[in-house]
Write a structure and sequence with these properties.
The protein is an alpha/beta fold. It folds into three domains: 4-88, Winged helix-like DNA-binding domain superfamily/Winged helix DNA-binding domain (Arc Repressor Mutant, subunit A, Orthogonal Bundle); 92-162 and 268-288, D-Maltodextrin-Binding Protein, domain 2 (3-Layer(aba) Sandwich); 166-264, D-Maltodextrin-Binding Protein, domain 2 (3-Layer(aba) Sandwich), CATH 3.40.190.10. It is 38% helix and 23% strand. The strands form four sheets. The chain has a five-stranded mixed beta sheet, sandwiched between helices. Strands 10-7-11 form a three-stranded antiparallel beta sheet, with helices on one face. A two-stranded antiparallel ribbon has the order 1-2. The two termini are 51 Å apart. Keywords: DNA-binding, Transcription, Transcription regulation. It holds the Pfam family LysR_substrate. InterPro entries: LysR_HTH_N, LysR_subst-bd, WH-like_DNA-bd_sf, WH_DNA-bd_sf. It comes from Kineosporia mesophila. Residues 2-59 form the HTH lysR-type domain.
């Protein structure tokens, strides 16, 4: 098998097309360099140079081998630096889970910030509900989640990323659009309600039932994805309580009305990670996001 020393000797001769100049460039004498190239040709099994009284020329095989030799040398030279960057956490891969609702506004800003601060970090995305994110973080299938509480503080590290209000999604022609005040819970008691699933969207389910009396005979659909709720509202199936950031999707035929809540911004989104994560990129990414 050929060595990197042989590759460097070959590349020098291929670029100089002169053994003497190549030897000077490599701070060695010409005879050892000639032996390096000859040994390389034996290892490869083809002639890489034509040599005659007029000088040195690459053979067609040598021209092809030159490109690969340059690539191998570049990889060899960059590998230690890349390994150090990965060990330090400034390069490598960060697997990020996010809820569909987090994709409206906050996720692109977060990714742009990470890419600007850590350009060598590969970001891999996984869309999943909060419950699945918790399991994936605990099982080290993802490194960082954008998820809703609650979390076990002994198992997970977490940091509040944002708070936002709840709004009521209604068809544009709904009588509630003519109110000159925020919608109150009692305004929705008799409305057909598109509800968050108590299995797949437990955070929003608990939040809504804690803010208003939900009559289950008025619940026409229970779904897990906020975008699905908005499409159902557009189709006239009912009304829905969704986070304020949902307004960014601008669905024709749907109005978003302010909803009166004891806490102005009750909806929370957290960064979530495993305290025992072994990914060196995670603490570096968290530090980069500290002031985001």
């Amino acid at each position: 098998m050929f060595s990197f020393e042989q590759l460097r000797g070959f590349v020098a001769v291929a670029e100089e097309l002169h053994f003497g100049r190549a030897a000077t460039r490599l701070s060695m004498t010409q005879p050892p360099l000639s032996r390096l190239v000859q040994k390389l040709e034996r290892e490869v099994g083809v002639r890489l140079f034509d040599r005659d009284s007029r000088g040195v020329r690459l053979t067609p095989a040598g021209t092809a081998f030159y490109g690969e030799a340059r690539r191998l040398l570049a990889l060899a030279e960059s590998a230690p630096q890349q390994a150090r960057r990965i060990s330090e956490g400034s390069a490598g891969r960060l697997r990020v889970g996010f809820t569909a609702g987090a994709g409206y506004g906050v996720l692109p800003r977060l990714l742009n910030h990470l890419s600007a601060q850590l350009p060598d970090l590969e970001l891999e995305l996984f869309e999943m509900v909060s419950r699945d994110q918790v399991e994936a973080v605990q099982g080290h299938e993802i490194d960082l989640g954008l998820a809703r509480p609650p979390f076990d503080a002994a198992t997970f590290g977490h940091r509040l990323l944002m708070r936002e209000a709840l709004v009521v999604a209604v068809p544009d022609t709904h009588p509630l659009t003519r109110l000159d005040r925020p919608v109150h819970p009692e305004d929705l008691v008799a409305e057909p309600l598109i509800m968050h699933s108590d299995a797949k969207a437990r955070y929003f389910y608990d939040l809504v039932v804690g803010l208003m009396p939900v009559r289950h005979d008025n619940v026409v659909h229970s779904v897990s994805q906020i975008l699905t709720m908005v499409w159902l509202v557009q189709g006239g199936r009912g009304v829905a309580l969704v986070p304020h950031s949902t307004e960014l999707i601008r669905v024709d035929g749907v109005s978003f009305l302010p909803f009166a809540t004891p806490t102005p911004k009750p909806v929370e989104l957290h960064l979530l990670w495993a305290r025992d994560s072994q990914n060196p990129a995670l603490p570096v990414a968290l530090e980069a996001l500290r002031n985001q």
